[in-house]
Amino acid sequence: MEEIKENQTEETNPVVITATTDNPQPKEESGKSFLQDLFETVAMALILFVILNTITSRVKVFNVSMQPTLREQDLLLVNKLAYRFGTPKHGDVIVFHFNGDDKEDYIKRVIGLPGDLVEIQSGVVRVNGQALTEPYIMEMPTYNGTWEVPEDQLFVLGDNRNHSSDSHQWGTVKMEWVVGKALLVYWPLNKIKLLTIPDLVHAQP
């Protein structure tokens, strides 16, 4: 009886089998794979960053000249290629180098295109004799004047008409000074909105 018990004990001893893989991956190769993935991720991020910087610009508003449309500290997304593949339209909000100085950027609304005649009388803005409907302005302008827009230039005004340094004071903006078209406000989050509006003027010069 004791021998049977002993044999049973020997037969029921667990057999340990060590599993092996057909193609074990050395630690060195695993390290290389991680570094390769990291390099590709960083390279892709840099490429996307360069592309975004080429196509767009992020701009912060520092003054009140475009109120109520834009407020101080608003952050805007600007399409820098908008006028390489298209042309400005009445009502576009644009960013440009003031007097060509790339260290001083202004943001205003396009009122007059090349060849347009812009008239401001009794608080009403007319382009080629057609009065504009401007629900976006702070108040009607208190100044008067007439301006003819030269070729390849733009006449721009701030939406805060009576508190804006713009074309009614210092003249038109050359197209070569234009940085791009402002597309939207993306900050603060509760103020996100598009800045594109339908063409305000259909009259021809």
Strand and helix map with partners:
Blueprint: H1 2-11, H2 27-55, E1 56-60, E2 75-79, E3 93-97, E4 105-112, E5 117-121, E6 124-127, E7 130-131, E8 145-148, E9 153-157, H3 167-170, E10 173-174, E11 178-187, E12 193-194
Antiparallel strand pairs: 1-2, 2-11, 3-4, 3-11, 4-9, 5-6, 5-8, 6-7, 9-10, 11-12
Describe this structure as you would to a colleague.
The structure is a single chain. The protein is an alpha+beta fold. The chain has a domain at 58-194: Umud Fragment, subunit A (Ribbon). The protein is built from three helices and twelve strands, in the order ααβββββββββαβββ. It has helices at residues 2-11, 27-55, 167-170, and strands spanning 56-60, 75-79, 93-97, 105-112, 117-121, 124-127, 130-131, 145-148, 153-157, 173-174, 178-187, 193-194. Strands 1, 2, 3, 4, 9, 10, 11 and 12 form an eight-stranded antiparallel sheet that branches. A four-stranded antiparallel sheet has the order 7-6-5-8, with no helix packed on it. A hairpin with a 5-residue loop joins strand 11 and strand 12. The longest helix has 29 residues, at 27-55. The N and C termini lie far apart (119 Å). Residues 1-11 have low confidence and may be disordered.
Count of separate DSSP helical elements? 3
**Structural class given helices, strands, pairing?**
alpha+beta
Radius of gyration: 33 Å
The best one-word shape is elongated
CATH topology of the domain at 58-194: Umud Fragment, subunit A
Describe the sheet with the most strands.
Answer: 8 strands, antiparallel
Strand content: 25-35%
